[in-house]
């Protein structure tokens, strides 16, 4: 059997992970990316054991480890009082519990590591500055129609994987009525030098600060040299973009009554980027024939369980496994979808439920905090064992 040629649309985390997994499974891979360079916006990403086990399997974990941080603990904080609601040790304790490390890393460092690994593999070809305009299928191939500068080109492959994100062009052809759903919230993101913060706020701990209508997440990145901040607030602006400037005064207005430590974090960046939060309702199908979807193109979810990147990486490993085992490419793609759809839909639903839980106000907020205080931080982690303990 001749070497299969798989075309992956999108050179984000999911697309590059898919390229690596497919190449390791014996395929030749062409990665198509609309941007002229592989760049990622400045934000952090949390990777639990379900994702880091995949990175180990892909031979990428060693590349990211030096720039990542393995938090020593996590803490859920009362945003207004500044008191700890619950906490748990991380590090070696959580790695032993779930069979893999939990790390936090700057997203650009993760994407750069994946891209470097892909470029070192002769079976992977990365083609930049090309945008998917459509595709047509025949019995034995898919023809992908691309815009390239002022011109166009068509590439033929044995399969097409749409890993082209929330606004996926591939999904747009497959399911034109499947539109992203606006969550009426914005995520404000920034990083600050750890040296600019008090030591108590720059330690290797992931903190989730909860308050009425808004929350804040802080954790170290860049081998501990910087602190990543994500503030989530109500927002009615349904403007999509990854690099929209956010006005610090507007952000702080959502946190006027918060604790001194939370405000110290929020006031530390010189610059915030703001983007509207969208997700997708679970799709009834991810593909047809020789075409399928992966990552946010298939199952974009709110960031409240820190599983968006992890689920895309899981997708990549499963996709490569099913295609390697299948004698027939369409059958392998449908097997991949059957394995992944129930899990990703469950994670999507769980992430949406966190939206409400994180932002409770009044008596409901007090009751939530009482329940969390009564449970150990370990119990909070165990609640999501079904996510973290996943194996390919």
From TrEMBL:
Keywords: FAD, Flavoprotein, Monooxygenase, Oxidoreductase. It comes from Ancylobacter amanitiformis. It comes from the Bacteria. SUPFAM superfamilies: FAD-linked reductases, C-terminal domain, FAD/NAD(P)-binding domain. Pfam families: FAD_binding_3 (PF01494). Its cofactor is FAD. Its EC number is 1.14.13.1. Residues 6-349 form the FAD-binding domain. The keyword Oxidoreductase applies. The lineage of its organism: Bacteria, Pseudomonadati, Pseudomonadota, Alphaproteobacteria, Hyphomicrobiales. This is Salicylate hydroxylase. One of its GO terms (molecular function) is salicylate 1-monooxygenase activity.
